[in-house]
Design a protein that fits this description.
heterodimer, A: 491 residues, mainly alpha, three-stranded antiparallel sheet, two-stranded antiparallel sheet, B: 406 residues, 5 strands, 3% strand, metal-binding (chain B), coiled coil (chain B), zinc-finger (chain B), Protein FYV10 (chain B)
């Protein structure tokens, strides 16, 4: 089934998957698993690639309908470790709920009580009553212990299932992770994270607890210079608590107005105040906001019924506000205003997409957050979130590495660089990366990328090694040049 | 080394490395709870059955009045009722723990239903995980109020261990104040489990009590110290012989001595060592990692994201806050920049640049189309010109030169 995940983009692969399955030993099972697939392929062969492309949606829905039952179908599949854990645990839970232990204790109490009553009523039969009482109380205790044993074995089974789930996956033993000594920086990052997530209450508590603890334990004698600690701790007091906190509070106010009340005015006001810096960044946030405001007015504004007066309000708004944008966004403004000619049948006009963009509000909110954070020199998504997520993705690879290195007793040579490549999702790549095609090393400040006159780029050290001060041939094209003709480039 | 540069594959089984304590801890608590039940039952059994036998024998040999028999039975009944009450409350506790475990299992199972790392659901799941890691970090650092508030705000109380850590923190604080009572009580509650531990927390606590008695230099206190040592320290002579000798030697020194090792035995800093030892023992007993999980995740994540450009003296063209079409790299962002300084950067075996790269006369490399787009959006750039978004220099489009990066 692996192959099917990518079939969407390349329908022809579908045929390959099919032929593989048919010719493999799993012929009969594949007929069960893929009912209708054959038909689909016949269809594909008959009508060719273009048809499939146009019926793309049909294919996706078809695939989902086919793959879904396969996952749940119990074709002699060994349950995954997680499922075993789940099963053992629900057994444990059931056993606890139906526990006999307390009932057995109660029955022992009942026995004792009735014996007592019997003796009180007739003291002469005491010894006989007590003799039978002994055996029955003993058996009560035995059954208590039996039920305990049962619970115990349930607990043990659950332990085993957990062991299996986490088998070979111990938590990394980081004796010195280099982070413990920088507690204050972590705390600062957390405070910033809480602020940018809008958790102002938690952030306030957190900062006051840090301050409190600092007064109790002024300087921990960990060999750290007290001077450096105090300056960086000052940092944490100043950065998140005053200026940044105010900034984030206003960001949250604006976002809240934007998302919950569809009120763009605070955002527009902010973008006006920061017009200069936004323009320097090449940001068209202000225009995007005003454009959305225009569209929103056209759709009726706050009372989203009366579309008849909507276009008037929109035009009024355009007349008042858009003149600022005309020099730079002439075409867009023309489109927006020109679209009014089609009102009220705008849906059928070429401008329909401009006015019916369902994700427009989310996009603008996202855009605003990004611009706001960028002006503060911060990334749009919480760095702490990205780093922790990337860490969780990287951990399996790093752990494997740790075990291999331990068993081979080797260490990697470059301590500045991780020894393995860790594939992260594409949105986690933030910088361009230059790896010298000659030395296979990543460029650094000490070993920057150099462009030869032919336009090929190699690292500075490779350049020196190849050229040795003389003219040399580029390793990738026939042109020759002198090392001193190469120029440093910035990625 | 032809590893993929990027991947959105999600392997749930190996993805939950960080989440071991999530299931281990409540399980450890459930086991402890069970052992308490077991011990309670055993204790009552050992009392009731011999007592019953005795009463029966006495009754048979007529050495007991009926009233005495009744009294003995009453005593048994009340003890059994006590047992029942105890078991009931422990069962409540057990149910609570199991329900918590169930919620945690459901949380981890949710990950198995997420198709890839690019899925929106993964994003949500990962945010919950970050909140868990933050609460864990706050609890370990002693910021209990913040932890509680965050857990409540995010509705993840069942996924974090507020109770366990708060209790731990209470003992730690009492030790820092110079009190051994709560720590010793904890040792008493976990006696059986502590036998397996390699650290002798209880011995160290008793030794501290002894040191405090000697510190007073009061004669009667010193005698009390000797009695205390006989009772609590000497029984450990097999494993802690040298420590006991040292403790004996301590009797002739005062706390301002400069002679080692007595000086460090008297040192007030020993309380901090004790509280650290307590934390270590406590975490070990509950299979909690000694490092905050956040540290583990961050040290891996910072390295995986870091590039040589993040701490470069030159502003990167590909990701900086001055340009609108790129997002600021999290390592370059002020929150994490300093933290990541000492971390190794990620390994890459292939270059990764924007498509159709060009170089400007100042040496800066950009994707051609992106540069043109940015310049169009920026004010004060004439058509046919491009503006370097990093430095603000303006060039003519003809000055862009194709660059080949392999």
């Amino acid at each position: 089934m692996e192959g099917l995940n990518h079939v969407e983009d390349h329908p022809e692969q579908l045929v390959c998957v099919w032929f593989q399955l048919v010719s493999s030993r799993h012929h009969s099972s594949c007929r069960q698993i893929f009912p209708g697939l054959r038909q689909y392929i016949v269809y594909w062969i008959q009508f060719g690639r273009r048809v499939i492309k146009s019926s793309y949606l049909t294919f996706s829905t078809w695939r989902d309908s086919v793959t879904a039952p396969v996952i749940s179908e119990p074709v002699n599949r060994t349950p995954s470790a997680m499922e075993v854990v789940q099963k053992e645990h629900s057994r444990l839970l059931k056993r606890t709920e139906g526990s006999q232990g307390i009932r057995n204790v109660q029955s022992a109490i009942d026995l004792l009580q009735s014996a007592r009553d019997a003796i009180a009523a007739d003291p002469s039969g005491a010894s006989a009553t007590l003799a039978t009482l002994q055996t029955s109380v003993k058996s009560s205790f035995d059954s208590i212990n039996d039920s305990l044993k049962e619970t115990h074995s349930g607990l043990n089974k659950y332990t085993k299932s957990l062991d299996k789930l986490f088998k070979d996956r111990p938590l990394p033993s980081t004796d010195d992770d280099g982070l413990s000594a920088q507690e204050h920086l972590i705390n600062r990052a957390i405070a910033m994270h809480l602020l940018r997530e809008g958790q102002f209450g938690v952030a306030a508590t957190f900062l006051s607890e840090i301050a409190e603890q600092k007064t109790i334990n002024p300087v921990s004698p960990n060999g750290r210079g007290p001077a450096s600690t105090s300056t960086s701790l000052l940092d944490i007091d100043e950065v998140p608590s005053t200026e940044i906190r105010k900034q984030f509070a206003s960001m949250y106010y604006i976002l809240q107005q934007l998302q919950e009340n569809k009120n763009l005015l605070p955002a527009i006001e902010w973008s006006r105040e920061n017009r200069e810096s936004l323009e320097a960044r090449g940001s068209n946030l202000e225009f995007e906001l005003c454009r959305l405001q225009y569209v929103w007015l056209y759709h009726g504004g706050a009372n989203s019924q009366g579309t008849t007066s909507g276009w008037q309000a929109a035009l009024e708004y355009a007349r008042r506000e858009f003149h600022v944008f005309v020099p730079r966004y002439l075409r867009e403004v023309q489109q927006l205003v020109g679209a009014m000619a089609y009102s009220p049948n705008l849906g059928g006009s070429p401008y329909a997409a401009l006015f019916n963009n369902t994700s427009a509000w989310d996009d603008v909110a996202h855009f605003f957050t990004r611009e706001f954070c960028s002006l503060l020199g911060l990334s749009a998504d919480s760095p702490l979130y990205i780093a922790a997520t990337a860490g969780a993705i990287a951990l399996p690879t790093l752990l494997k590495l740790q075990t291999i290195m331990k068993s081979k007793r080797t260490e990697w040579t470059s301590e500045n660089e991780l020894p393995v490549e860790i594939p992260l999702p594409p949105q986690y790549l933030f910088h361009s990366i230059f790896v010298c095609p000659v030395s296979k090393e990543q460029a650094t400040d000490e070993n920057p990328p150099m462009m030869m006159p032919c336009g090929h780029v190699i690292a500075n050290e490779s350049l020196k090694r190849l050229g040795k001060g003389n003219r040399f041939k580029c390793p990738y094209c026939p042109s020759e040049s002198h090392p001193k003709d190469a120029r440093k480039v910035f990625l | 080394m032809a590893a993929e540069l990027t991947s959105t594959k999600l392997n749930p089984e190996s993805h939950i490395i960080l989440d071991q304590p999530l299931l281990r801890l409540p399980h450890e608590l459930a086991r402890r709870n069970f052992k308490t039940v077991q011990r309670a039952v055993e204790r009552e059994k050992e009392y009731v059955i011999p007592a019953l036998k005795e009463t029966a024998a006495a009754s048979l040999s007529n050495t007991q009045t009926p009233d005495q028999t009744l009294a003995a039975l009453d005593a048994m009944i009340s003890r059994m009722q006590g047992l029942k009450r105890k078991m009931e409350s422990l069962q409540e506790e057990e149910k609570k723990i199991h329900n918590q475990s169930r919620k945690r299992i459901q949380h981890l199972e949710a990950l198995h239903k997420i198709p890839s790392l690019a899925d929106v659901k993964y994003d949500q799941w990962s945010r919950v995980r970050l909140d868990r890691l933050l609460v864990d970090h706050m609890l370990r650092s002693g910021y209990s109020e913040s932890a509680k508030q965050l857990a409540q705000d995010r509705g993840i109380e069942d996924l974090v261990d507020l109770g366990v850590f708060t209790q731990c923190q209470r003992v730690v604080e009492s030790l820092r104040r110079g009190e051994t009572k709560e720590a010793l009580q904890w040792c008493g509650e976990n006696k059986a489990a502590l036998k397996k531990s390699q650290h002798n927390l209880e011995f160290e606590l008793r030794l501290q009590q002894y040191i405090e008695m000697v510190r007073t230099q009061d004669k009667s206190k010193k005698i009390e110290a000797i009695i205390h040592a006989k009772k609590y320290l000497i029984p450990n002579h097999q494993s802690q012989n040298s420590e006991i000798m040292r403790a004996a030697g301590l009797l002739v020194f005062t706390q301002d001595t400069r002679a080692e090792p007595y000086k460090s035995l008297f040192a007030l800093d020993r309380w901090r060592t004790l509280s650290n030892l307590f934390i270590q023992t406590h975490h070990e007993l509950l299979s909690l990692p000694s490092q905050p999980l956040l540290h583990i995740a961050l040290s891996a994540g910072l390295s995986a994201l870091k590039t040589p450009l993040c701490h470069s003296a030159y502003t990167s063209s590909s990701s900086n806050s001055q340009s609108t079409s790129t997002s600021v790299c999290p390592i370059c962002s002020t929150e994490l920049n300093e933290l990541a300084r000492k971390m190794p950067y990620a390994h890459h075996s292939k270059s990764y640049v924007e498509s159709d790269p060009i170089v400007l006369p100042n040496g800066r490399v950009y994707g051609k189309q992106r540069l043109i787009d940015i310049s169009r959006k920026m004010g004060s750039v004439d058509s046919g010109d491009v503006k370097d978004p990093t430095t603000g220099e303006v060039y003519h489009e003809d000055e862009m030169k194709k660059v080949y990066i392999m």
